[in-house]
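Ticket #4471: structure export looks truncated?
Reporter: QA, pipeline team
Priority: medium

Steps to reproduce: submit the single chain below to the structure queue and open the exported record.
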Amino acid sequence: MQFRQQALAKLQSPEELDLPVRFARPQGWLVMSVTVVVMAAASVWAVTGSVASTVSAPAILTHGQGSYVLQSPVAGQVTQVIAKEGAQLPANSPVLKVRTAEGDTVVRTVAAGRVTALAATIGQIISTGANVAAVEKVAHASDPMYATVYVPAENAASIPDDAAVDLTVSSVPTQEYGVLRGHVKSVDRSAQSAQQIAAFLGDSQLGEQFTRDGRPVAVLVRLDKSKDTKSGYQWSSADGPPFALTSMTLASGSIRLADQRPVDWLLP
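Actual output as written to the record:
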């Protein structure tokens, strides 16, 4: 109580009445002005600005119709492998010959395509329905190539039409040649199982690999073409790699999502 009375007495002293009152230092006004300007600029940016985001997922280069697994219609011993890996074959072309109790049977392609893998060797005993080859369904070697990106199902709805895509191709040194450019052609709105992916790619191991973290959604990417590169497609570098791309090459895709305003993050 004594200290309070002394403080009041000092404030009421006539000796103090003629002194000017200092409200704030100049440095304080400067800090306050800068703070107000920064907050105003941030508010304007939150309403008028935009932030880009991407989703990354594993991908594979393919032709648009996918592949199929060729199976043997008979049981027996493989006596001849006629086709070679990488060969472009028309429909009903001979792939291998199987000797059975009734005679030799020729296993033929179901549809035109490129043989991407052979699973049978000469002398091997196979059963009816055994997988003997994987054939990519492409009528001509010059048919355009696509990329299929297997995106987590929760991100599929946020992918806009014709979204830009950067593809890091496993067989191409990124630091030297950059990334492959493309745009979203279509988004499959239903999640795919390992069996569905294996049927499309003609490879059960890839089906398991792409569903390791859950059932993804397939996003078909149209590769941007270029007449100035060896591969025939556009890269982030001027020339791209000095060789052509092959299908069934693994990659990683980065898809640009729709831009968002920062203020949308604060609104329910």
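Status: closed, not a bug. The export was complete when the record was re-opened. Leaving a note from the reviewer for reference: The longest strand covers residues 54-63.
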